Amino acid sequence: MHNETHLNMDKEVYWVEVEYVSRTGDTKPGVVYAFVPASDAIEAYQAVNEALSHRELRATNWLLIEPYQDKLFLWDDDEQEAHYERLCELAMANDACVFDDFYDQDEFERPEEEEIYWAFVEFRYLYEIEPPAQGGFANILVKAWDAPDAYRKVQKAVLTEDLEPFHWLRFTPVSRDQDWEKEDVAERFQHLWDCAESSGACQWGVVYNYETYVDE
């Protein structure tokens, strides 16, 4: 019998930015922020997709999917931050997808170039390792058109390593000059970013194992 380590899989509010078109032609193409309680990024993606469908809208480009509390930048002012905090609280209180204002776009165009997306994935080992561990997690950078495209590419890369992905935390576009608290972290990140940009292949950060387990 093994002692297994699991992360808390309770829901948290995910922040999603998505572009859409109308299924009926009655609504102009546009973009919207959505806030939705979910256990991971994939569940958030599915919930927002369903909520859009109920409005006769079809998603065309998923710009970001990440936990709201882990967002990579600050809002412009306290009023703006308070507004989005209220939407988060409303989403959690009702356990439902909450949309911000829908903004029209005159034209919808697929991005001309792929961006570098930052994915965070937890996985289980499908083979024995030394020292023994039940699973682990890693940050992965990959060039992709949008968040679902990043998901497909990262999932394939993880499965190729004989790992079973089970929890997806984020799919967020990042710039090479992303701010990091530590200089060595920034240097590693920039190296991964450059490799992802030049090769198009998934670039793995450090793979971390959960606590080891022992036979009782």
C-alpha Rg (nearest Å): 19 Å
Biggest beta-sheet profile: 5 strands, antiparallel
SS strand fraction: 25-35%
Number of domains: 2
Structural class estimated from helices and strands: alpha+beta
Helix content: 25-40%
In the predicted model, the low-confidence regions spanning at least 5 consecutive residues are 1-8
- Helix and strand succession? EEHEHEEEEHEHEE
**DSSP E strands, number:** 10
Mean of the pLDDT scores?
A: 88
Question: How many helical elements?
Answer: 4
Shape, principal axes of CA atoms? globular
Q: In angstroms, what separates the terminal alpha carbons?
A: 6 Å
Short key terms for the protein model shown above:
216 residues; alpha+beta; 2 domains; 5-stranded antiparallel β-sheet; 4 helices; 10 strands; globular
Which helices and strands appear, and what pairs or packs with what?
Blueprint (H helix, E strand, L loop, with lengths): L11 E11 L7 E9 L2 H14 L2 E11 L10 H17 L3 E2 L3 E2 L10 E11 L9 E10 L2 H14 L2 E11 L9 H17 L3 E2 L3 E2 L7
Antiparallel strand pairs: 1-2, 1-3, 2-4, 2-5, 6-7, 6-8, 7-9, 7-10
